[in-house]
Putative fructoselysine kinase (Agrobacterium tumefaciens str. Kerr 14), 272 residues
Amino acid sequence: MRLLGLGDNTVDTYLDRKLQYPGGNAVNVAVMAKRLGLDSHYLGCLGSDVGGDLLLSSLAAEGVETPRVRRRSGQNARAFIGHRNGDRYFIRSIRGVRAEYELNDSDFAYIAEFDVVHTSIYSEIDDYLPKICPKKALSFDFSNRWTNDYLEKVLPSCRWAFLSASELPEGEVVSMLQFAASLGPEIVVATRGEKPCFGLFEGKLHVQEALPTTVADTLGAGDAFIAGVLTTLLKGNSFPNALQAGASNAALACQAEGGFGHGIAYEDGGEA
């Protein structure tokens, strides 16, 4: 089975630790799916700087193919992160060249070769989604930035939808899932950090507890969860088994630094 991570990437930069890691939702999911046995590719736009180099070399080291990745002159997307009492917090981000490309007919022919295409709210490719959807099963991560208006715009193009809802009471999470499912996706999942996640499939609500783990870094755990769910579903397993696999993969991801490792030293280059 083949998965394409499409769109967003970033370099997660730990200022207090002077380390930088390759990341971004579409990148992380592609890497984690590869580790779980899928044939994974990534298509997006990288900068001409050390961040772009780090992403490209890390994807190659993980066996993720990148035949149609673009590189543009300029800074790669970058997120600056601090830590306080063991918890991370986001300081600022650089958009960089991440969205400085257009998908063409050749790209759409390439995209059509995959069993699932995964992208996110950060990928800035919403206008392309209806063209992708008729060909492929589309998976979309809405993170915690979704609104009802945005769900109404994007969900009709999706088969699988993942939303972060850690701040919502359980009753509101269930109502949100029901609303989202009414817009067309086959499966809708709400992740809630260390709290149980909820998933809706064929009108039935499923609950999956977070699994105990030793936490080194929670960055990328949600992406690992998505990769576990998608990989398990693509292999023909049940939805409850997919949620359990997602929780297991997320717990494993928490034990490593960065989204999927490959950290290198960071020296402040004056990025703004």
Observations:
- The chain has eight helices and 15 strands.
